[in-house]
Specification:
By secondary structure, the chain is mainly α. Helix content is about 75%, strand content about 0%. It is elongated, with a radius of gyration of 16 Å.
């Protein structure tokens, strides 16, 4: 086992927490902007995504404070495209999920061989983000 780089780990956890909290805002916004005949199931999907982002931020925050880190009060920047067709929202969601996946992969790389718990947490989150990517790709399939 190698030694855990606490500062780098805490910094990454804060970045992930900020990104997940931005996801809460992003997905809540999307749930409010959906119109059309498929509105209800898509709104439910985005509300669930917002709830999951909040849960992820809370889980990351618990680890961060457990490591004597201080959770950020910021959220990651969110661009407003002003495009609210379902296809546009799903594409933006997929882009957001790709970025989340990259953050968790970076986190895994940082904690690998230094903490089994953090490694397993990272792998679990990567798995969840990969599933989100697959779901969004399937939802976008009818638009191509």
């Amino acid at each position: 086992m190698q030694e855990l780089d606490n500062k780098k780990t805490i910094d990454l956890l804060n970045a992930i927490m900020e990104f997940e909290l931005a996801g809460v805002v992003r997905y809540t916004h999307y749930s409010l902007m959906v119109t059309g005949p498929y509105r209800i199931p898509i709104v439910d999907f985005f509300k669930a995504q917002a709830g999951e982002s909040l849960l992820h931020a809370q889980q990351v925050g618990e680890i961060l404070t457990g490591m004597d880190g201080h959770p950020s009060l910021k959220i990651a920047p969110i661009e407003e495209s002003y495009k609210h067709k379902v296809k546009d929202i799903l594409e933006e969601s997929l882009s957001h999920e790709y970025k989340a996946l990259e953050l968790y992969k970076k986190f895994l790389h940082t904690v690998e061989n230094a903490s089994i718990y953090l490694e397993e947490f990272a792998r679990n989150m990567i798995g969840q983000e990969e599933m989100h990517n697959l779901e969004l790709k399937k939802m976008l399939r009818d638009f191509s």
